[in-house]
């Protein structure tokens, strides 16, 4: 009788692994169900599976989990082609400007600003232009070439804006601040069209004279010279009409 009882206990202990194995199979099944639901990119299905799993382990009725335990609905809208172009262009411009700033002392004198109708590149470097001159100072011609090389890649249309100080044309060969500011923008566009083989149809040139000054800086000298500047508005709209 004793031998028979010992055999029964041995048989019972040998079958205990089946319980652990069954638990493992159940967990693996649940894991693959979650993977399948995720691969279908169906958030509502994934949410239901998540609630069911949590209720099974926590003893909570499905559909009555705490808000913190549920998965929020998300949208996965892919960026448009235009937005993608702007993101890439902005990233490359920031990288190029950072490299240029290491070579020259240019605090925040080149700015990239998001506008409703496009991306504005403001080049307001101190001494970019000598007073009354429409030619970029020789020390900064390389800066304009680097920026032009980046911007020309996007095949987007641009509006070039020239600016001047009040009364800057006096004593120069220009008849007004408007004529001077227009010439500043025109000469950069002419150089870019020639250097990078760009279509002139991509550009619109505007001279604002001294009517669009930037905000006054504490450093009066820099503020004054920074209004001798150009700004480039890269058009955002899909049609790229100018």
Write the layout of secondary structure elements.
Layout: H1 2-14, H2 16-39, H3 43-58, H4 81-103, E1 110-115, E2 118-123, H5 141-151, E3 158-162, H6 177-196, E4 203-207, H7 220-226, E5 230-235
Parallel strand pairs: 3-4
Antiparallel strand pairs: 1-2, 2-5, 3-5
Helix pairs in contact: 2-3, 4-5
One letter per element, helices H and strands E, the order comes to HHHHEEHEHEHE
> Strand tally, please?
5
* Radius of gyration (Å): 33 Å
Poorly predicted runs are 64-78, 218-222
**Helix percentage:** 40-55%
Task: Report the sheet with the most strands, covering strand number, pairing sense and barrel closure.
Answer: 5 strands, mixed
Q: CATH superfamily of the largest domain, called what?
A: OmpA-like domain
Look at the helices and sheets and give the structural class. alpha+beta
How many distinct folded domains? 2
Cα distance spanning the termini:
102 Å
In the CATH scheme, the class of the largest domain would be Alpha Beta
Mean pLDDT level = 74
Strand portion:
5-15%
How do the strands line up in the largest sheet? 1-2-5-3-4
**CATH topology description of the largest domain:** 60s Ribosomal Protein L30, Chain: A
Count of helix runs: 7
Structural shape? elongated
Query: Which CATH architecture of the largest domain would you pick?
Result: 2-Layer Sandwich
């Amino acid at each position: 009788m004793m031998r028979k009882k010992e055999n029964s206990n041995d048989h019972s202990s040998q079958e205990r692994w089946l319980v652990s194995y069954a638990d493992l199979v159940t967990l693996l099944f649940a894991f693959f169900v979650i993977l399948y639901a995720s691969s279908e990119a169906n958030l509502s299905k994934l949410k239901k599976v998540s609630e069911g799993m949590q209720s099974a382990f926590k003893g909570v009725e499905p559909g009555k989990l705490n808000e913190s335990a549920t998965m929020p609905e998300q949208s996965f809208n892919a960026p448009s082609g235009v937005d993608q172009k702007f993101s890439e262009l902005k990233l490359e411009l920031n990288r190029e400007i950072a490299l240029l700033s290491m070579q020259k002392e240019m605090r925040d004198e080149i700015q990239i600003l998001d506008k409703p109708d496009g991306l504005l590149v403001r080049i307001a470097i101190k001494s970019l232009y000598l007073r009354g001159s429409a030619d970029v100072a020789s020390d900064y011609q390389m800066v304009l070439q680097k920026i032009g090389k980046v911007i020309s890649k996007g095949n987007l249309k641009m509006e070039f804006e020239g600016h001047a100080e009040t009364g800057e044309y006096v004593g120069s060969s220009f008849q007004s601040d408007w004529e001077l500011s227009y010439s500043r923008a025109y000469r950069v566009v002419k150089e870019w069209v020639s250097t990078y083989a760009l279509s002139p149809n991509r550009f619109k040139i505007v001279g604002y004279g001294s009517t669009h000054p930037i905000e006054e800086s504490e450093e009066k000298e820099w503020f004054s010279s920074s209004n001798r500047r150009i700004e480039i508005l890269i058009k955002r709209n899909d049609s790229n009409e100018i």
